[in-house]
Amino acid sequence: MNFYEKIYEVVSSIPKGKVATYGQVAFMAGNPRAFRVVGYALHKNPKPGIIPCHRVVNRDGRLAPAFAFGGENAQRKLLLAEGVKFLSNGNVDMKNFCVGGGKVE
């Protein structure tokens, strides 16, 4: 299995209604420093709608400014539909909706 496939496997395991950070995904896929590679892989998601790349956000809970499948508003809509809540600054409420509270270890 190549690294992109590991990334897709990890992202597919993020439960509905939760998010993970790029760093968490990289860590769980076996390369903690490869958070940028996670972004590249998600941008090339071979199975949109099946691999839930909308559940990956940055460490502060910010959405991707250029969400590959419709822009930031599309990512927000998908997360809201799953019950994810946002703070007043527009970021995901990481304390309550991030797998592991955003920690990679």
N-to-C CA distance: 23 Å
Q: How large, in whole angstroms, is the Cα Rg?
A: 12 Å
Summing up helix and strand content along with how strands pair, one would put the structural category as: mainly alpha
Number of DSSP strand runs: 2
Q: Which sequence of strands runs across the widest sheet?
A: 1-2
Topology readout:
Elements lengths: L2 H10 L7 E2 H7 L6 H9 L12 E2 L14 H10 L12 H4 L8
Helix pairs in contact: 2-3
Core attributes:
mainly alpha; single chain; 105 residues; two-stranded parallel sheet; 5 helices; globular; 2 strands
What does this structure look like?
Helix 2 packs across helix 3. By secondary structure, the protein is mainly alpha-helical. It contains five helices and two strands.
Short description:
Helix content is 38%, strand content 4%.
